[in-house]
Amino acid sequence: MPRTTTVECAGCPPLRALTFDTLGLIKVVESRGDRGIPQVVERWGNPDASKCVLAVSLDDSKKDPLLAVARKSGVIEVLNPLNGEIDVSISNVGDAGAQPEDDAVVGLHFLKRQRLSGSCTLLTCTTKGNASMRCIEVTGLTADNASTGASRTWKVCASGNILCSELDGNENYALFGGKAVEVNLWDLEKCSKIWTAKPPPKNSLGIFTPTWFTSATFLTNDDHRKFAAGTNSHQVRLYDTSAQRRPVISFDFREAPIKAVTADQDGHTIYIGNGSGDLAYVDIRTGKLLGCFLGKCSGSIRSIARHPELPVIGSCGLDSYLRLWDIKTRQLLSAVFLKQHLTNVVFDSNFTDREVAVEAQNASEIQNENEMGTVPAKRSKTSKEKGSKRKASKEKDGSKRLKSKEKSH
Amino acid sequence: MGRKLKKSDNEAMAEYENDIDLDNIDKKREKRKKKDEEGEEKRVILPSMIKNKEKRSVVHAKLQHMKKVEKRKKLKARDATEKRALELGEEPPLRQVPHTIENTREFDETICKPDDDELFAGNDADEFGSILRREQIPKILITTCRFNSTRGPLFISELLSVIPNATYKKRGTYNLKDIVKYASNMDFTAIIDVHTNRREPDALLVICLPCGPTAHFKLSNLVLRKDIKNHGNPTSHEPELVLTNFTTRLGHRIGRLIQSLFPQEPNFRGRRVVTFHNQRDFIFFRHHRYIFETKESKQNDSKGQKGKDAKGEKISQEKVVARLQECGPRFTLKLVSLQNGTFDTKSGEYEWVHKPEMDTSRRRFFL
């Protein structure tokens, strides 16, 4: 007889994730309750290939959060991440003069520090290397005639294509890299390049691998000097701007190009995903592989996001699944099928705060259940064992959640 | 043997002993027989337990026959109950559906549903849209790997007869990436690369141009036209295309990829069908000619009473029978990987790669 039981995915702690796809749709995935199964709650926008999302930035402040989305048509939209209403929509075409198809936006970052009431500052960067900082008036009521305030533009590179850009935690420095562009660090206040990497030397056969950076990330929020970068030639490199211009550590990861690199909060672990769907985490201080996340992931990973509080990461990519993983056990918590090729995923960290009341209720309910635990009336014979297992893990999770709550308070 | 030896030693004693022995043996045999009979009543002797081949085969044949008879009885009884139910105007009892690997396949949430608006929006936006909307006529370039001999060229010549508007170019020593550039400059819509190993075609690489996906198939069980019995020769009409069982998202995409290789306006006068049938992730390719023939139905002759009543209708009662004749190659494809963008093994991103860790269940299919 066929195996009718499927391998169960342990549910997720309560979280809220936003995913962005190639048809320009934004989908909100929420998991409620203690070990809920994440589901698509909302879908914003209409499917349209020209609205393909290229870059995303989320300002996660508790009061008045904002979400910026750069689309293929050259439009940058600022949305409310709670209900998906478009506050401002500006066109990126005007100032560069080039067609949006040729000069797509690759980097988009909110400068959270410089946010005033009613306006925000955005750093954008295009493939041709046109970086710009602009101030946008976000007046909730008059969405149509939003005026763009002061803007500064500069050229990051003369030739080549920019493929990745990153903003450091203090928002004073930005990082750019790409195809035939070495990673370089810019001071945003002076708009000047302060550091450029040097390519590694030719190997023993005299072969030079061309520069092609695909992803980069700063290791910690308060240190702009250390960052990790992934290359197309399946290398991950650690740079320290205070030490040298060549990489401090460089190691290979599998055979496919690295497509996503994300740092953990602890400052030395990074998560890497590559073009054939392998996801792993690495201690960047030693370059040692700590473990792989296995779960029949078959499509290229485009984006990895680390949840700010819970020990959860989310990955998405061309296999159109959003996968949520437990960091400690490396187990797949849940996989949500989202129908399109996904380009980005972000976590909304304020979600747990909003749901505290509900959670508390849930927690008490769970406790009640545990007390009642021995009553077998509701469970059928076959599910007995599973039930007890689940309960055990529930208890674990409960304690985790409590910890995370303590952190947040 | 033992008896003879004993006889030579001491005859008188031996004979006496023999008598006793024989008596004993006879008694034992009787006992055994009794035991066996009791055993037969209790448990059936399986044919595999009998050591003599002749006897075993007899018993086996008997068993098989019994089974057959029983099955026939069962079917008859079922048919009878169905007929009775129909006569009485009741619902006939549901027929049992056998469990197969396909109908017990693992639940897959990616199976396409007809009410999915995102699916259709995605279809409109994808790379094959312009061909399938008939805005563009497919133009195919067929090439090979660098070393190509015996069955490779034969297979390609048959592929050229299957796919209209296809041209063959020698591979030479060009890189595939250069060929992709050349072909997209020459307005080709797809490249098919036949890879041969040990003089036997073993892989098919389909690259959609200018920016479309690249599918890599394993090719097996290739039978050329010459080796098919009673094969026909195809005409140059545009063929009809049959794609079956491409159900999931990935399957749907592969189906559209295959569809985009053929012109979208079949010439029905040609009566030519090209079939891609997906079963358990294997895609079977067949190429047929069909014909509708009219035959006088035999029902009238066999049932004389009814024939008398329907004499007037006799002339019009002609059966239309479809007949198939296979032509062209016959082969099986299995998807290995689907890559986003044109051929690029070094920096390519995969939409789907087959990994060994996916093969943990016989009932999980991806197409």
TrEMBL record, chain A:
Bias type Basic and acidic residues, positions: 394-409
InterPro entries: WD40/YVTN_repeat-like_dom_sf, WD40_repeat_CS, WD40_repeat_dom_sf, WD40_rpt, WDR74/Nsa1
GO cellular component: nucleolus; preribosome, large subunit precursor
Domain of life from the UniProt record: Eukaryota
Single GO biological process annotation from the record: ribosomal large subunit biogenesis
Residue ranges, annotated region (Disordered): 362-409
The keyword Repressor appears for this protein: no
WD repeats: 294-335
Keywords tagged on the record: Repeat, WD repeat
Bias-annotated ranges (Polar residues): 362-371
Protein name listed in UniProt: Uncharacterized protein
From TrEMBL, chain B:
GO molecular function annotations of the record: rRNA primary transcript binding
A GO cellular component entry from the record: preribosome, large subunit precursor
Ranges where the record places region Disordered: 1-43
InterPro entries: Brix, IMP4/RPF1
Compositionally biased residues, Acidic residues: 12-23
GO BP term (any one): maturation of 5.8S rRNA
Record-annotated Brix domain positions: 138-344
Matches recorded under PANTHER family: RIBOSOME PRODUCTION FACTOR 1 (PTHR22734:SF3), U3 SMALL NUCLEOLAR RIBONUCLEOPROTEIN PROTEIN IMP4 (PTHR22734)
Protein name: Brix domain-containing protein
